[in-house]
Q: What sequence folds into this?
């Protein structure tokens, strides 16, 4: 087990271009599940590949267990990586795949087989050892990739979108399995995903990245409830946070906090708003209402409301309803930089 | 729509093929219109002839050595050409050139390069004092040297084709695979011999199959460089069939020699397709 640190880590692929990763300072905690979250092209995979040793940093340092590993090969870093495609060796059996890292380390045969059996049992693929990768389902392939990663007891696990090849139903169960697996092996895991649900569900902490820059690091609750800037606010949450012009500042509030007067459960003072209902999406457990704020405060802004199924009233299209947001649910952002700032008095 | 293709195959492949069978079991000679069925007499006479056995042995040596060199050289070239570098397109073009240029032109060039009097190789070797000026090696005149020469020139000719096939194979291996090997702690040679080459096996088989067929049935290089000489030491089955059947006028025996190639090649092709199927991955 080890702590992974990066110091001002930067990767520029072509000179003169904007860096894929720019000055990233990160520090994982012992045995932590750390998720790198961002849209495609945000640099999260490049960051992971630099930690793995597959990509050379342009500048900055990578430390594993307190030691600078910049000049070490992937094998010397004692990391294991699960690729998006799983990268199983197609001509080898499942057993052949799992023992390959041990063979490369010249582990004696008897011990090799014992360890492979242990890894296979841990992931429940003991009965598949003789099969070839192409004879396995997506979920089984993923488990083989995990077994191949765990078998030599690495100090850090790196996972690059390992669930993106699974269908939606399988993904939920695979997600749960992966969480259990991490808890059992209690090894630091760095997990790359563009899926915010995965990040929120699995991460002990989430690193939100955009354009090569770390925008915020925090627990799922931190990044969701207290976004550091407008990017994090609008990237997380579906539908994303409403952002409206509040005069001196941008004001943000989550759709689930923008509710009909009297229905909101948040105590304390609230800001009343006139909401012209546009169209409605019925999603079973909830309703999403798209519309505009009528004249007055925040007038004209497009906003979204998310009504729980417990709110039964029908809201006709084009009607103007009285909605409100509890003041404590309002987040304030700098108009120019987009970063969080102290609340302003709303006129 | 299909008719021209069928006619073409029938007229240019089927008819000569059946004609060869017809000749091989008869006593056809150039300049005679008679035909008598003689059964397998031509085959037994061919099998007993020392010239045939030598040609068979030469064919095997010629093909095996050429293909061994082509496999190693083709993989090395493919590995070099796989990754981008400045001028890669030019190098790719130059590599393919010996294949697209007519083989006769290339072989005539080589005939001069290896000539006993005007050889540029010897000129260089003499100037470097590596060989005596008065008795430089006779590249095409000494049995062993002649065989080595025709093997090298044939390798030069068929290497580009194998390189192109192998290059396609190498580029079809996803980047993840060698990266996974690196993360798993495998070095260059372990990755090459345990992962990437086995993954390439079906494609190597295809390259090998084409290479064997092209080399085993081809006589252009040998015909131009040595005409089978000296003393038949570079005579291969196709050239022997040509010399016996066409130049020697014994059509029946020539046909028997060329038909002898068929089961041999069919066996090779069947074996290789079988391995390719077994190794198939995906």
A:
């Amino acid at each position: 087990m080890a702590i992974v640190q990066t110091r001002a880590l930067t990767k520029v692929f072509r000179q003169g271009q904007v860096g894929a990763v720019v000055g990233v300072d990160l520090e994982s905690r012992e045995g932590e599940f750390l998720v790198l979250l961002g849209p495609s092209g945000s640099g999260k995979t490049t960051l992971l590949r630099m930690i793995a040793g597959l990509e050379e940093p342009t500048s900055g340092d990578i430390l594993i267990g307190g030691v600078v590993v910049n000049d070490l090969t992937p094998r010397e870093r004692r990391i294991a990586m699960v690729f998006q495609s799983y990268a199983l060796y197609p001509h080898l059996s499942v057993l052949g795949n799992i023992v390959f890292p041990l063979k490369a380390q010249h582990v004696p045969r008897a011990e090799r087989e014992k360890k492979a059996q242990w890894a296979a049992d841990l992931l429940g693929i003991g009965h598949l050892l003789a099969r070839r990768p192409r004879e396995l389902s997506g979920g089984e392939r993923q488990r083989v990739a995990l077994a191949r990663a765990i078998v030599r007891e690495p100090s850090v696990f790196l996972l690059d979108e390992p669930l993106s090849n699974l269908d939606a139903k399988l993904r939920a169960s695979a997600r749960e399995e992966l969480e259990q697996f991490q808890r059992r092996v209690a090894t630091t895991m760095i997990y790359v995903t563009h899926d915010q649900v995965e990040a929120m569900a699995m991460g002990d902490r989430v690193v939100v990245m955009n354009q090569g820059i770390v925008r915020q690091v925090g627990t799922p609750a931190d990044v969701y409830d207290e976004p550091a800037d407008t990017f994090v606010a609008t990237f997380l949450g579906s539908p994303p946070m409403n952002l409206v012009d509040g005069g001196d500042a941008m004001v943000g509030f989550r759709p689930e906090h923008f509710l009909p007067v009297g229905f909101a459960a948040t105590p304390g003072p609230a800001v009343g708003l006139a909401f012209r209902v546009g169209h409605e999406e019925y999603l079973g457990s909830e309703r999403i209402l798209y519309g505009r704020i009528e004249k007055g405060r925040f007038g004209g802004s497009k906003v979204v409301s998310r009504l729980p199924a417990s709110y039964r009233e029908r809201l006709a299209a084009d009607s103007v309803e009285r909605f409100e947001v509890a003041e404590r649910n309002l987040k304030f952002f700098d108009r120019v930089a987009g970063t969080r700032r102290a609340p302003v008095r709303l006129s | 729509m299909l008719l021209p293709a069928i006619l073409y195959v029938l007229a240019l492949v089927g008819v000569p093929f059946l004609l060869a069978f017809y000749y091989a079991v008869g006593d056809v000679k150039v300049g005679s219109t008679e035909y008598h069925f003689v059964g397998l007499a031509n085959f037994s006479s061919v099998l007993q002839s020392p010239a045939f056995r030598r040609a068979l042995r030469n064919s095997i040596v010629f093909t095996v050595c050429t293909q061994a060199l082509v496999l190693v050289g083709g993989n090395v070239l493919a590995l070099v050409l796989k990754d981008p570098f400045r001028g890669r397109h030019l190098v790719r073009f130059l590599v393919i050139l010996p294949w697209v240029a007519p083989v006769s032109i290339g072989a005539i060039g080589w005939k001069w390069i290896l000539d006993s009097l005007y050889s540029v190789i010897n000129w260089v070797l003499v100037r470097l004092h590596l060989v005596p000026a008065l008795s430089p090696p006779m590249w095409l005149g000494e049995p062993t040297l002649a065989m080595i020469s025709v093997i090298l020139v044939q390798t030069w000719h068929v290497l580009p084709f194998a390189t192109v096939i192998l290059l396609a194979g190498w580029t079809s291996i996803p980047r993840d695979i060698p990266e996974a090997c690196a993360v798993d702690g495998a070095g260059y040679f372990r990755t090459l011999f345990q992962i990437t080459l086995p993954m390439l096996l079906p494609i190597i088989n295809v390259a090998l199959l084409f290479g064997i067929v092209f080399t085993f049935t081809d006589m252009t290089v040998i015909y131009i460089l040595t005409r089978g000489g000296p003393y038949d030491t570079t005579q291969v089955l196709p050239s022997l069939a040509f010399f016996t059947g066409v130049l020697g006028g014994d059509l029946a025996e020539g046909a028997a020699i060329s038909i002898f190639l068929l089961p041999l090649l069919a066996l090779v092709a069947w074996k290789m397709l079988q391995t390719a199927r077994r190794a198939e991955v995906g």
User: Anything to note?
Assistant: Chain B touches chain A at residues 174, 176-177, 179-187, 190, 194-195, 198-199, 201, 279, 281-282 (CB under 8 Å).
